[in-house]
Structure formats: C-alpha cells, structure tokens
Amino acid sequence: MAADNKPLMPKATAVWLVDNTGLTFEQIADFCGLHPLEVKGIADEDVAKGIKGMDPVTSGQLTREQIEDAEKNPKLRLKMAAPKHKMPNVRLKRAPRYTPVSKRQDKPDAVYWIIRNHPEFADADIIKLIGTTKATIQKIRERSHWNATNIKAVDPVTLGLCSQLELDLAVSRAAAKHERAQKRAAKKGATLKPVSESLAPGSAPSDTPPDGDEWKLSSELEQD
C-alpha cells in the first residue's frame, strides 16, 4: 500500500480498530502500515500505551460498511475511503538558490566570467543561475564593485556554484532567447540597411569629377 494511502495517525487508528472492531491483526496491520506483531502488541497493551484511539470512520478514512464487510471476510483488505472534498493542488513557489556562506564570496568571479564569455546572458539569466542580485551584476559590469580590483573571471562550475548541466542549459536558453530577439528586431526594421539600399535609384554619390564643360560653367558662375 502506498505511503500516501495510510491513515494520518496509524498507531492511534490501530488502537481504535483493535478496541472497537472484530478485524484481524493482519487486516489492521495492512491498513495502518504496521507489522501484525505490532498490532498484537497493541492488543496485549505492550505497544502504544497511552495513545488515544482515533476513529477512522469519523475522520472519513473508512466507512462503517467497509469495516462490517471486512469483519465478515478475514481475507478482505481495507482501503482508504475516497475523500469527500477534493483539495486543490498547491503550487509551491520555487525558493531562491541557496549558496553556502563559504562560496558566496566567489559569486562576483562567476558573474564576471559569464559577462566576459557569454554576453548574450541577460541579468535575469545570471541571477537564476548564480543566485546573485541585479545591483551586484550592474556594479561588476561598470567595474564599480567594492572589490573590483580582485575580481577574476572564474567558471561557476569550477567554483561549485552550479553544475555543468545547469550551465549548458542556461547557455542554450540564453542563446535561443537572444536569437529570437534579433529576429523580432529584424522584422520591425530595427536593423540599419546598407547605404546602397537606403538611397533612391540614381542618387548614389559619385566620386568622378564633372566633365570639362560643367567645370567651365561652374567657374564662370562663381566669377559673376
């Protein structure tokens, strides 16, 4: 029987079933996740002394009909009753990455390594991988960090701040994100066109000087 199908308080439930039903030790042990000898010890008052029995019928873990059927058939095994109310799944918020105190001083080195070797990383990508702050990343970029003179570019995997698999996944995701951003910018016309494409036909600048007649005419006009 799966662990999540056991009673909330197995020994207290076993105490109640021993005192209030005609179930066999094996049936009670199977339902409560105990050993039959442990259930026998409860019946002999050698085990679970002082534990108050908990009624599984009142708590909705068993029905009276299930108990009556099992009492008539010793080979029948009890099963947890279906809950009357379905509890919604609670999505736990992912906790921020924990870094041991002994390794926190290495974070600036790892951030600097990522900035130098993977410029496609956004600040959010670095924060997620290393567990640092946006302000720290900005100071390292600007070389205004209080310990900037001692910061060296060191692989975060070598420092033990992340695994090689985590780094590889982060690199691939950042590269894909960067590529998508470039494609969107290209579609919006954000990239500059070559000069030959931006000028109208026939308006391209010419490096050839004007012919003789044109030069003579321009000279006369300047003299006038």
Index terms:
single chain, 224 residues, mainly alpha, 2 domains, 12 helices, 50% helix, 0% strand, elongated
Structure description:
The protein is built from 12 helices and no strands. It folds into 2 domains: 3-72, no CATH class; 101-190, no CATH class. It has helices at residues 10-20, 25-32, 36-43, 64-72, 101-104, 107-117, 123-130, 134-142, 156-159, 164-187, 195-198, 212-223. With 224 residues, it is mainly α. Helices cover 50% and strands 0% of the residues.
Mean pLDDT: 80
Structural domain count: 2
Q: State the separation between the terminal residues, measured CA to CA.
A: 110 Å
Global morphology: elongated
In N-to-C order, the SSE pattern is HHHHHHHHHHHH
Number of helices: 12
Low-confidence stretches: 203-207
Beta-strand segment tally: 0
- Percent in strands: under 5%
CA gyration radius, whole angstroms: 39 Å
Going by helix content, strand content and strand pairing, the class is mainly alpha
Helix percentage range: 40-55%
Q: Mind summarizing the main beta sheet?
A: none
Task: Give a short overview.
This protein has 224 residues and is mostly helical. It contains 12 helices and no strands.
Task: Give the SSE layout.
Blueprint: H1 10-20, H2 25-32, H3 36-43, H4 64-72, H5 101-104, H6 107-117, H7 123-130, H8 134-142, H9 156-159, H10 164-187, H11 195-198, H12 212-223
Helix pairs in contact: 1-2, 2-3, 6-8
